[in-house]
Specification:
Strand content: 5-15%
Number of helices: 16
Number of strands: 8
CATH superfamily of the largest domain: P-loop containing nucleotide triphosphate hydrolases
CATH topology of the largest domain: Rossmann fold
Oligomer: single chain
Strand order of the largest sheet: 2-3-4-1-5
Order of helices and strands: HEHEHHHEHEHHEHHHHHEHHEEH
Largest sheet: 5 strands, parallel
Length: about 400
Amino acid sequence: MDPIRNPYAPGAGQRPPELAGRNEQLGQFDVVLERVARGRPERSLVLTGLRGVGKTVLLNTLRSAAVRKGWGTGKMEARPDQSLRRPLSSALHQAVRELGHPSADDVDHVLGVIRSFAQREAGPNAKLREQWSPGIEAPAVRGRADSGDIEIDLVELLTDVGGLAADVGKGVGVFIDEMQDLGPDDISAMCAACHEISQSGLPVIVVGAGLPHLPAVLSASKSYSERLFSYQRIDRLEREAADRALAAPAGEEEAEFEPAALDEMYAATGGYPYFIQAYGKTVWDQAPRSPITEEDVKVAAPEAERELAVGFFGSRYERATPAERDYLRAMADAAVELGADDIGTVATADVAAFLNKKPQSLSPARDALMKKGLIYSGERGRIAFTVPHFGRYLRQQG
């Protein structure tokens, strides 16, 4: 098969040629956009799921939908070592530019508020190189969004941005990837700001994406977050959608999969979107001709697995220390021994038993792995891999 015409896209965050199985989320978001723009009450949105299920792709697609409606949008990626102020300021700067408000004075005022919000992180005596310079020429607005209390400042900031959007009958969408990595104070402030904006009816929404424990992070911050956001779990694709993700792009290139080949592909990928793209690309490159057969998939599978072992699994495994790797392997072994689910959910006590250690002594390794985003705790006393098939990868390493 011609590799130049290979339609599959296994890159991180790259939109696949066929965004299968997400029509429900896209349709619901269109309703949210219309309701918010008309001043109707609507909740912000949180997407959760494992690595490789397409959260970032969906987040970007939702942002594109907002842009098509004429909204101002901005996107940021949360990091555990970074405050919310600077990345959010950059995102809102872009959103304000996209709004196209006709009053230069009103725009400059809001840009000045954004600047004061960002610069508050550096402090009044910060050196020039430590001050945030986002390309905003408007002077900082003193006394607005610069109190130093992130909750107060964020409410004031989004209120002013929302007012600018309301003037032109549009909305503003803030899209936050890896939302679980926001610091506790920033998470609390974001919840409080969303609550205030919702009550005031301003056309601003936050769309967050994160790992499965993100709802628990939000709930621990503000109890009302359970009612503040609309939570959507993004999971692996059902069989029909998984087949379409493979067959539709192939059809565009005048190629096809035999039914048995699709059976084999689903068995290998488990319906996880990233794996579908990774296997699809490798199988296409190695298959001699169309239609792609079951045997073609079996021949190409080892190469696909090798690439995943390096780029998808290995890159994460390398971030772990020796003690953390022992913990990960014990998780994988315990999952098999105890018949755990597809993502290897096990009790922390069982992991300790496999390592013949007290659970308390393993807390540092467990906590470090959670901070690195390799495992998560969906409920007290239980943990799971954030990456599907990670346990299988670990067991294959020996």
